[in-house]
Design brief:
mainly alpha, 434 Repressor (Amino-terminal Domain), 5 helices, globular
Length: 69
């Protein structure tokens, strides 16, 4: 759920995993592992990713909440 929303936000921004990783100062594999569900993401990392892709963390969490209700 959250993983799908993060990937969708990146794609809507027209950014590659490498571009997001460069902005975050992390390897591309960091972004790939998050999107593949191989790595958990903490709140601070989530907020940083959403800022880089100009995504609304509030909207993402609303959609995730709606799916889990």
């Amino acid at each position: 759920m959250l993983v799908r929303e993060i990937k969708s936000a990146r794609q809507k921004a027209g950014m590659s995993q490498q571009q997001v990783a460069d902005q975050l100062g992390v390897p591309q594999s960091f972004v790939a592992k998050i999107e593949l569900g191989e790595r958990r993401i903490d709140v601070v990392e989530f907020l940083r990713v959403m800022k880089v892709v100009n995504g609304s963390w509030k909207e993402v969490l609303k959609r995730v909440e709606a799916e889990t209700s």
